[in-house]
Amino acid sequence: MTSQDRSRVVLGFAFTYVARMTGRQRRHAAEWLALGLTFFSGTQLFCGSHRLQLSTVSARSEAKKAQPQVLPFVENDYAAAQATAKKSGKLLFVDAWADWCHTCLSMKNFVLTDPLLAPYGTQLVYLAIDTEQPTNQAFLQRFPITSLPTILVLDSDEQVVARWTGALTAKELVLRLSELLTQQHKQRPKLAEADALATQGRSKEAALRYEEALMEPGARPRALLGLIQALATTGQTERCIEVYEQHAHQLGHSAQTTDFASYAASCVDSLEDADRRQKLRRRLRSDLEQLVADKEAALSVDDRSDAYGTMIELSDALGEKSVGDALTEQRLKLLEQAAQAAPDSIKAATFDAHRFDCYRRLQRWKPAEEMLLSSEQKLPHDYNPSARLARLYYETGRIDEALQRIDRALSLSHGPRRVGMYELRANVLNSQSRTREAMESLSTAITLYKASRPASQTGESARLRSLQKQLDSLTEKLLQQPEPIEQPAPKAVDSPRGPQPGKPKQNQPIKKKPEPRYEPGMPVAEKKKNRQLAKRDSNLK
After folding, report:
1. Which of the 8 DSSP states describes residue 510?
2. CA proximity to 312, closest of 293, 289, 290
3. Among 361, 436, 430, which residue's Cα sits nearest to residue 399?
4. Which of 319, 243, 305 is CA-nearest to residue 277?
5. Which of 47-61, 170-184, 306-320 has the lowest mean pLDDT?
6. pLDDT bracket for residue 508 (50, 70, 90)
7. Which of 524, 525, 520, 527 shows the shortest CA–CA distance to 394?
8. Helical ranges in 131-169 per DSSP H
9. 385 with 370: CB under 8 angstroms?
10. Which of 112, 213, 350, 460 has its CA 20 to 30 A from that of 28?
11. C-beta of residue 136 within 8 angstroms of C-beta of residue 452
């Protein structure tokens, strides 16, 4: 019997005990039961963490072998990389990334492997930090990562020299590395201080320093992006929008422009004036349309796709779904061409996340399923295809298949990403009326979320409140179920001879109506008309 099975046995006894209580007793006991669920979830996570690392390490090893190593990265060993940098007197370049982050994958597969970077391979020490790896939690507690991808440059005293978020082209990265090596960054002390504050999670103070850094030579593009990011994070809506309106044109047509517009769009959502919200959304969409229309702009496919994604969200907020659908078609065409042109399956999978977004919106389930099944087969150690298939099957009512895929994804994954997976698993189980197991999955999600939060983040976040609210709802649902009533065993009665009216003869089997045949991609209504589609939960890409 596995530890999970043993936990279920114990929980089964607990639920049976609660079911026999009175209404007031049951409600009081439910609070302790939820706490117990969280405790059991935590012990299971602790015992299984080493097994999870084995499968995910092999996935990263395969990816590393498949890619040419232009920059010699140390993988997930901050102590070793920092010691090497200190001994050699070199700066430490840290790439903080995650398997699910499409921009991270774009950087790893198309930028950090670019031959333009080869001359810098020995000039710095390079470290890759998988932010999902439990072994990297000490680094993440010291250097909280709030945006992916994030590149940090540290000196021998482990002080932040530079902080770069979002996408970069190989040419942009060459320029920034050159500035570091020629000490040009020392001419921008306010920018360095702002980056250090942002890395520490002190966003309000960072915003003030970024404002001051705008006046330093050559600092404006980076200072503007850092500023609007800090303003959006701290809820300074008016200043955030003001910064966009005054400075958006100064960034030109670059990857930073897509991120700049995305942060501005998030600030617009918080405005109370509806007319002003819609006016600003139209301006943002117009600016991004001009950006993607510029074929000469130094943008990767992922950058252009990000811009399309923001335009689609803006169109939906404007109540123009048809415009959003048309933009989705353009985005999907761009991504499919890029996937077909990719030299191998690893690079092609870079575009899976955004392609899946497009297929979901357009409800093209069959090509989505074919894409994900292909990626799952070609990348057997990557949890992303299975997690996305679970989402697809859940949203199309193929519940049993959804449960199989989410369990497979969980067996391959690690770290905070599992929060969303356990949340999806709870919804799948709940749709099968397996309330107790759904509660167990949500409790595990809560435990994971709390364990993965940086120490600098205090208080209850919106994400945690959402998970707790779902758990409370399931607890209430369970308590509202009728209490079991013990019925006396029926006495045996001799049945009269011969067939009874209205009953089939024993030797004549009842004919069952044949199930309609189901093909992949077919709408769920064609599969089984009386099946209820499960309600969507939070987005898991």
Report:
1. P
2. 289
3. 430
4. 319
5. 47-61
6. low
7. 524
8. 137-142
9. no
10. 460
11. no
